[in-house]
Amino acid sequence: MADRRLSHLNAAFAELRSHIPRFPYEKRLSKIDTLRLALAYIEFLDGLAHSNLMVHEYIAHSPRWLHSELALRLRWLDWNYFLPR
Question: Start and end of every BHLH domain (predicted)?
Answer without folding.
Answer: 1-45
